[in-house]
Amino acid sequence: MVSVDNVTHSYNGRRALESVSLEVRPGEIFGLLGPNGSGKSTLFRILSTMMTPGAGRASVAGFDVAAQPDKVRRCMGVIFQSQSLDRKLSVGENLRAQGRLYGLRGAPLKARLEEVLARLGLAARRDELVDSLSGGLRRRVEVAKALLHQPEVLLMDEPSTGLDPGARRELWQYIEELRAAHGVTVLLTTHILDEADRCDRLLLLHQGRAVAEGAPAALKARIGGDVVVLDIAEPEALREEIAARFGVDPRVSAGALRVEIANGHRFTTEVVEAFPGLIRSVALHKPTLEDVFLDETGASITE
Amino acid sequence: MTLFWLPVATLWQRELVRFWREKARVLGFVGSPLVFWLILGSGFGDLAFFFPGALTLTVMVSAVFSTMSLIEDRREGFLLSMLVSPAPRSSMVLGKTLGSATLAWLQGLILMAFGPLTGVWLTPLALVQAVGVVFLISLTFTLMGFLIAWHMESSQGFHAVMNLVLFPLWMMSGALFTPEKAHGWIRVVMTVNPLAYTQASLQHLLNPGATAGLPGLRLSVGLTALCAAALLTASILAANRRGKASSA
Questions:
Q1: Contacts of B18 in chain A (CB under 8 A)
Q2: Cβ-based contacts of A105 with chain B (< 8 Å)
Q3: Among chain A residues, CA nearest to B95
């Protein structure tokens, strides 16, 4: 449904994307996960037809984003990271204007308007000015706006930006309902782990390159076992010793020592006993996407 | 066809609705040129001579400043959703500029209602022509503003262009002095200044007693229309450009 084939893009000689390819299947929720500057926003701008790719091809619903932008725009709903509403207009006025930009009018427009207002629980807010709405409500209007013309593909840039956890949960509920009811394909960018965990599949981006791809669970399973993080005053000094003693490959990250190991609970007690007084704290967790990213790139998503 | 005119009408309507919700702007735009005209006209004892210039100023300030909303649209993100919609860019340019032009035109008409104070009474034909010409001038200035705003990130830059380019051009348009009284180099500027022709067309229609040395009405209106057409083309071309980058 969305296909990116070897896309490379530079701004004034600075490489933002390097031969990135991906394939999003119909009805899938696909995430582009990476820290700021990883190239995911560049890819978003190319797919949303704001920019043409420097090299390579990208298509949405079978239409080429560079050659057939009008066809792409017609079958795609876009939600930007920043808000895109006219704050001086009411909710209803914003949606009507949006519908008309997509060629909707009269009875069909009215019917669509009623439907999205009802679906997103905005019917009572129709006449309120966007200026007077809370951040969560505005986000909902953004979603309503993107869905008005019944797009096959929904493209979202950092959809949870500025949302509190409640509003974020709500947003995801709508996204999942939408997929279930209409088979909408969703492609989103994110640097939030919770959000990435909810995707069917992910592409991890780092410095413009694709570093890993797969379902969140499969990506985490690559690490296997547990991750133990040891807070040590001088992690470098103990690294060699722990490696030799336990047959592991610890990594220094953010001033702590990270160890991936099959039986984390056993290792934890043994390592604390082995170095009494040297370890300030120990944390044991199942691998997260952050661990996957660290493993692949040596860098953190959240920084 | 629907996908061209429907966005035009929608964006046109949006400009009007937004303006109506900020009524202070209405007062400011009509009020200041009116005061300006009354003081200058009364001071020089010639309300009729300064009237067309005050009218141009009203329309210019209103038109150019309402296109500043484009910078706001960009900052607030509304522009983004227009850019990823299937509405043709030309319909966006036209809807947005027609909306701003309509507002400038209405304000010009309000000022025109004070015309009888000049003591000059227009024939019905001149009145109809003047109403049309004021719209043409409104559109020209709006397109000028659109083109400037399209390339501007901030409203400060916009004010700088307004003060350094548009106001001097207005001063050298014949609004404050006629070409025959001017120095040589200013006279040269006045022959190539597009605002001199908008000014001349209004002078012909609103104060036909003082048109000595001015280009003819048809020539003036024709050149203004040509100018508008060129600006429209340039605006559509600018709006159609998508971000491109090299693969290097």
A1: 86, 88-89
A2: 2, 6
A3: A101
- Per DSSP, the residues of chain A read -EEEEEEEEEETTEEEEEEEEEEE-TT-EEEEE--TTSSHHHHHHHHTTSB--SEEEEEETTEETTT-HHHHHHTEEEE-SS--S-TTSBHHHHHHHHHHHTT--HHHHHHHHHHHHHHTT-GGGTTSBGGGS-HHHHHHHHHHHHHTT--SEEEEESTTTT--HHHHHHHHHHHHHHHHHH--EEEEEE--HHHHHTSSEEEEEETTEEEEEE-HHHHHHHH-SEEEEEEESSHHHHHHHHHHHHT---EEETTEEEEEES-HHHHHHHHHHHSTTTEEEEEEE---HHHHHHHHHSS-S--
Q: Is A103 on the interface with B (CB under 8 A)?
A: yes
Record: contact A145-B81, CB cut-off 8 A? yes
- The model's pTM is 0.85
Q: Is A105 on the interface with B (CB under 8 A)?
A: yes
pLDDT tens per residue, range B52-103: 998 999 899 888 888 888 888 888 888 888 989 999 999 999 999 999 999 9
Q: Do B76 and A83 touch (CB under 8 A)?
A: yes
B72 touches chain A (CB under 8 A): no
Q: What pLDDT, in 10s, does the model give residues B124-166?
A: 999 999 999 999 999 999 999 999 898 887 888 888 888 888 8
